[in-house]
Amino acid sequence: MKLDRRAFINSSAxxxxxxxxxxxxxxxxxKPHVVVVGxxxxxxxxxxxxxxxxxxxxxxxxxEPTRMYYTCFxxxxxxxxxxxxxxxxxxxGSLAAGGVNVVHDWAIGVDREAKTVALASGGSMSYDKxxxxxxxxxxxxxxxxxxxxxxxxxxHAYKGGSQTExxxxxxxxxxEGGTFAxxxxxNPYRCPPGPYERVSMVAHYLKANNPTAKIIVxxxxxxxxxxxxxxxxxxxxxxxxxxxxxxxxGGANVSVDPAAMTVTxxxxxxxxxxxxxxxxMKAGHIAELAQxxxxxxxxxxxxxxSSKADADVYVxxxxxxxxxxxxxxxxxxxxxxxxxxxxRGALTGSKVFPAKFSNTCWSLIDTDNGVKVGATYEAxxxxxxxxxxxxxxxxxSADLRRATYEESEGWYAGITADMFG
Amino acid sequence: MRWHIQTSLTLxxxxxxxxxxxxxxxxxxxxxxxFKQCKTCHEIGSDAQNRVGPHLNGIFxxxxxxxxxxxxxxxxxxxxxxxxxxxxxxxxAYVENPxxxxxxxxxxxxxxxxxxxxxxxxxxxxxxSDNPSDIPxxxxxxxxxxxxxxxxxxxIQGDPEYGEYLASECLTCHQSSGANDGIPGISGWPTExxxxxxxxxxxxxxxxxxxxxxxxRLSEEEIAAxxxxxxxxx
Lengths: 421, 234
Hints:
heterodimer, A: about 425 residues, alpha/beta, FAD/NAD(P)-binding domain, 2 domains, four-stranded parallel beta sheet, 10 helices, 24 strands, globular, B: about 230 residues, mainly alpha, 12 helices
C-alpha cells in the first residue's frame, strides 16, 4: 500500500506540473484529493465519511450549487401538510465543520484524462478520485408537449425545493371540485413509491380542503411499488377520489398542453387545474458529460461503486446503474458508505471491508398510516444483488401503521444526521 | 403477522421432528411457588389488578403492551406494535432474560435461567389465561427450549474497526447521538445485551421485520464487532 501511495504522489506531482488552468483547491500539500459532485444522500454521505474516517489524510471537496439542501424524500409529506418546507432544509455548514471543503458551484465538465473537473465559475479542480452523485435529470421529449420550460405551468416536483413549493401552492389554489392530474414516470426512476405516496398526500390535503376534487393518474406502467398497500389505503381513506389509469387502459399514451392546461390520455382530452408531470429520468447531466453513462445511466461495479468506464470515478445513488437496488436516498446513503470505505482504502491503504448494502422505503398513505418495503443486498461480479427483503402487509393494525410512520420520522432524523453530521 | 407464521412454523418443525410433548409438562403447583418472586409486582387470579407490573390474567395470546389501563415502557409499546404476542415461546424467552427480548423493559428482573423452572412457571400462568384452547395442547410447557446463547458466542471479541464500518449501515436509522424518537437509540448499549438482542432478531424471537432482516445476515463475528463499536459510542 505504501508503494501505491508513493506512486500516487508522483502522479499527482506530475498532474500539478501539467495543469495550466486556475485551481480552486490548493494542491501540492501531498494529500490525496477526493472531489465529490452533488451534495445529496450519496454525495454528502460519501464526503462526510471520507473526511471523518481518513482523519485528515484525505482532502475532500464537495461541489454543490445550492446552499441549502431540500430533501426530495419527505417532500410528499410537505404536500400533505405533515411537514413544513423548513423541516426539509439542511445547511452544508456542519459538513464544512467536519472538514469537507464545500464549494457552491456547478460542475460543468470532467476531463478524465487530466483528472480535472471544470466549474461554472471558470476554475477547475484536479482529483485523485472523483465521486459523482448528481441525482437525476429528465429525458427530453419523454412526455409529449412537455419540456423543462413548462415546469412552472406543469411542475415535476421531483427534485426537492422550489418545485415542491410550487406544486403545493398550485394544489392549494385548486378551485372547488377541480382536477389534479399526474403523469407518472416509466421504470426505472427515483423513489419507486414516490408518485403514489404523492397521490396519497395530495388526496389527504384535498379531502380536508376540497373534498369534491378529483385526482387522475396516467401511468405508463401496469403495476407499481407497494400497489396493493396504496390501493387498499386509497379505497379506505379516499374512496372515489383517485382514478389510476395504468398502461392497459391507455395510461402510457399521454400528451399535455401546458398553455391550455389539458392532458390527453389515450385520445381523451381533459382540462385540469394542476398537472404534475414526472417524465422519464436519466442520470444527472454531469455523468453524461463525464462520459461514464451507457444509455440513460452510469454502469458501476458493485463491489465499490466505481464506474465501469474509469476506475478513478465512482457513481452513487440515482445516477448509477448498479443492479437490484431501487433509486432512493436510503440506497444512495448505503452505497456512499461502501464507496467511502473503498476510496479511503485505495488512497491511504486503510482496510477495505466487503460491500454490504441495504434499503428501506417508508411511505405515508394517510395520517398515522405508514407502510414500508426494504431489502438487503450484496455485491456480485455482475451487479448489486438482492439477498432478502420484506414489505408491509395489507390489513395491518392501526398501531403498527402508526409505529411505521413514527419509524419513518426516526429514519428521516437518522439519515439526515448521517449525511450532514 | 409474520410472528404468528414464524411461531407456527417452529411448532410444526418441532412436531414433525417427533418430539414427545406430554412428558415435559411443567407442574403448575411448582409454578405457583416460583411465581412468589413475581408477586412483588404482578397480580394474577380473581381481582388481579395492575400494580408495578400489569396483571397476568389472560397473558397467553395477549399482544405485548396492549392493556390500555397499564403504562408500558416505550420499548414494550414498540415490541407490541411490531407484533410481539405472548406465547409459550416468547414468554419463555422473556422470563429467561427480559432485556434480551425487550431492551428497555421496566421489568427489573434478572430472569430465570433454569428451563424446567420456567416450564413450571408457564404452566401456572397458563391456568389463568382465558383461551388456553387456542394454544396447541401442551405447547405452553412442552418445549423447554433454551434461548440462552452459547457462552462462546458471547465471548467473541469483536473487531472495532470492522464494527465501525458495519455500524455505518445502522446509522442510517439509529442516530449516533442516541436519539430515541421513532427508532430506538443503540449507542452505549452494553455488549452482552447488544449481542443477545441481535441474536434474538436473527432467530426471529424479536418481531421487527427490518431488524430480523438486518441481523439475519450478520455473522456471529459481525455482531460482536458491532457490539464492540456501539458500546463505546456515546
